[in-house]
User: Fold this.
Amino acid sequence: MTKIIDKSLQFRSYLTPKHWTLWFAIGLLRLSVYLPAPTIYSLGTFLGMLIYRVTPSRRRTARKNIIQAYPYFSKQEIDALNKKAFKSLGISIFEMGIAWFEKSDVLKQQCQIEGKKYLDDAMAKNKGVILLTGHFTTLEIGARLIGFYPEKYNGVFKKAHDPLFNAIMVHYRSKFGDELIDNKNVRSIIRGLKKGHATWFAPDQDFRHQDIVFTPFLGGIASTLTATAKLAKMTGAAVVPFYPIRLENGKGFKLVVLPPLENFPSDDIEADSARVNKSIEEMVYACPEQYLWSHKRFKTQPDQNFDFYAS
Assistant:
């Protein structure tokens, strides 16, 4: 059988001048790995505030999300959290370079893990583990770090809009574990879980044309994938929540692994999906300044005429 080659993932497809700017940016990202951690965080903080200033639509989106999640916050508290989140976003761009280019031995020394027993116990059952997490600004580095601990590990990714960036992302993320799976390739996700793999999974984005229900999340109602519960039911995999934290002053990272969801899934898909949201929500409230507030999480609503971000 002839193997089908995806030319969109081949670097030689992107050698024309229109791609040189991104190649140059990736080259700088590669070099930034050699900078001291305090320097990286200073540059990231500066970049984050620049993004905050030049992208008013993203700033307003984050502000709307924060107001909904923290209705008792004063204007000063909302603005402070918004700026911290954008600073964290700026740092995360440099952390992407660390995740892609840094040596494993170096990263292991920079990582702490809390609650590892929950992951070990779930893996010991050899039924697979859904590593449930959220879209934190530490997402990229967190996906690399958590892969050090389970014996078998798969990643799940959503295809990037820019084809060159997608090719680069897939190339480097593929080195994190055993297999990197497109989030639309459900069969491969199921196959990996049935083989006992821990599988990274972050369902906390807005989905419109997939199997969703509407459940509470961060003070509002969000479109929520039913996939987490369905995958657990089909494979018998445990759902183990975790989230990564960037430690202050360049002191590395900490992974917080939480107890598996008990009696999950049930026969109520809406209740199960709400539990998934609740679990991610608790992680967000534990580390709000490192969450990706600028995503339009509440764009899809039960009332299609209601635009949460209109004003």
Notes: Residues 8-290 form one domain. The radius of gyration is 19 Å.
